[in-house]
Design a protein that fits this description.
alpha/beta, globular
Length: 216
């Protein structure tokens, strides 16, 4: 091989090495969330289980990026019109702009392989004292994922866009700051609507969006 060929080969090798370094650095920059609060984390990893609302509450992610939801329109857990408006607001303004594909399911499915992902209810039954709302898994499919989850929030003004955003966050896998990695205060404003207690009109926030988009 000539000296010219040797130099050319060396330049090609060097160029490839630089490209690899740049790509690696770029990949590292793509994930720069303030904290990882998407289940499972270092501090939240106890598994996803099918439960009744009065049982121990496990943490789950929804099972894929296609997120369907339904709001109870009759019976004991029917949502009033202002409460439905709060759910619609958080779905359209907070979650639909993420990599989740959000749609309303007017004919919900409660069995089979394609259940409606989130069922919203209004009522206080089985909600522990001191809480305004809760989320639980009705049909776990893996130790991380659930096919259908229920969100129940007290009535009498407890339903707000912020709380609907918070409980929806749990349904897609977002956790509180105290079990995020690194650990943050539960009241840290950078947790958006996943801070607790949550403001009535608090939005999803950049950190939660990054975690959702990285997962889904």
């Amino acid at each position: 091989m000539t000296a010219f060929a040797d130099k050319t080969a060396a330049r090609i090798v060097g160029f490839c090495a630089v490209v690899l370094v740049v790509l690696a650095a770029t990949a590292g920059l793509a994930w720069a969330a303030y904290t990882d609060n998407m289940y499972p984390t270092q501090y939240a990893n106890s598994g996803c289980f099918s439960e009744e609302p009065n049982a121990r509450q496990s943490t789950c992610r929804t099972d894929n990026a296609t997120l369907t939801y339904y709001m109870d329109s009759g019976g004991d857990f029917e949502l009033e019109t202002p409460d439905k408006d709060d759910v619609r607001e958080t779905m359209s303004s907070d979650y639909n702009p993420t990599d989740l594909s959000v749609s309303y399911d007017s004919t919900p499915s409660f069995s089979g392989s394609a259940e409606t992902d989130i069922i919203y209810q209004e009522g206080s039954e089985a909600i522990p004292s001191g809480l305004d709302g809760m989320t639980w898994c009705n049909n776990a499919v893996t130790l991380d994922e659930c096919d259908q989850q229920f969100v129940r929030i007290r009535g009498a003004g407890s339903y707000t866009r912020g709380l609907a955003c918070h409980e929806t966050g749990h349904a897609v896998g977002l956790v509180h700051g105290s079990v995020s990695s690194p650990i943050r205060s539960n009241t840290d404003s950078q947790l958006g609507c996943m801070q607790t207690p949550v403001g009535s009109n608090t939005a999803l926030g950049a950190n939660n969006k990054e975690n959702i988009n990285n997962e889904y």
